[in-house]
Amino acid sequence: MPVAVKICGLNRPDGVAAAVDGGAAYLGFVFYPRSPRYVTPAEAGRLIAGTSATPVKVGLFVDPDDALIAATLAEAPLGLLQLHGAETPERVAAVRARFGLPVMKVLAIAEPEDVAGALPYTTVADRLLFDAKPPRRADALPGGNGLPFDWRLLAGRQWAVPWMLSGGLTVDNLAAAVRMTGADAVDVSSGVEDAPGVKNPARIAAFLAAARAL
Ligand SMILES: O=C(O)c1ccccc1NCC(=O)[C@H](O)[C@H](O)COP(=O)(O)O
C-alpha cells in the first residue's frame, strides 16, 4: 500500500532537498516561535522557492490569529494549513473560509475519548492528523515530541475525511504503525533528526525509502 509521507519541521535546504528527492508528499514548516524547528515566513518562502510544485507545502500553526496566517502566506506559498493547537471546529471552519486553503486539524491522542473528539472536525476540516498527546510539563511543546501513542486506538476506524498518523514514528516502527492503524499517510519530525530541530538528510532518505517499501 503506498503511504504518503509528510516531513515536518524542515528548516534547512539540505533537509528540504532530501525530502523532495526521496518523494515526500508534504513538506512541513513550523510557524510556532517556541519550537526548535521554527522558521520565519521569509525563511520558509526561501526554502519553498527552491522546490518543485509537487509536494504540498504545509504551514504548522498553534492557535494562530488571522494576522499571523495572513503575514505568513504573504511570504510563504502554502498549500495546506495545519492547526496544532486547541482550535475549535468553528475556528477551523473560519480559517478555511477566510484563507481559501485546505485545513488539517491535529487531534492529540492518549485515550479513546480523544479519538471520539475528532468527530466534530470531520465536517469542517479537509484532513485530520492524529498525534500523541504532549507530556504534562509546563514547557512541553504541543507536538514534535517524538512520542508514539497507542495505535490500537485507531485500529479499524473509518473517517469521513483523509487523515495522517504521527507521533514518534521512526524507520523502525513505521511498518508496524501503518499495519496497526491502516494509515495511508504519515507525518514524522523527531524520527528523522539528530537532535530537536536538527534534521538528518540521511535519516529523511531512509524513512522515505521505508515508506516506499511498504
Ligand atoms: O515540531 C514542533 O516543534 C512542533 C511545535 C508545536 C506544535 C507542533 C510541532 N510539531 C508537530 C510535528 O512535527 C508533527 O506534526 C508531529 O507532532 C510528529 O512529531 P514527532 O513525534 O516528532 O515525529
Automatic annotation (TrEMBL):
An example molecular function term from Gene Ontology annotations: phosphoribosylanthranilate isomerase activity
Domain (N-(5'phosphoribosyl) anthranilate isomerase (PRAI)) ranges: 5-208
Keyword Isomerase annotated: yes
InterPro entries the record matches: Aldolase_TIM (IPR013785), PRAI_dom (IPR001240), RibuloseP-bd_barrel (IPR011060), TrpF_fam (IPR044643)
GO BP, sorted A to Z: L-tryptophan biosynthetic process
Classification via CDD domains: PRAI
Keyword Isomerase: yes
Pathway noted in the entry: Amino-acid biosynthesis; L-tryptophan biosynthesis; L-tryptophan from chorismate: step 3/5
Swiss-Prot/TrEMBL keywords: Amino-acid biosynthesis, Aromatic amino acid biosynthesis, Isomerase, Tryptophan biosynthesis
UniProt xrefs under HAMAP family: PRAI
Record-stated family: Belongs to the TrpF family.
NCBIfam families in UniProt: PRK01222.1-1
Protein name: N-(5'-phosphoribosyl)anthranilate isomerase
Source species of the chain: Stella humosa
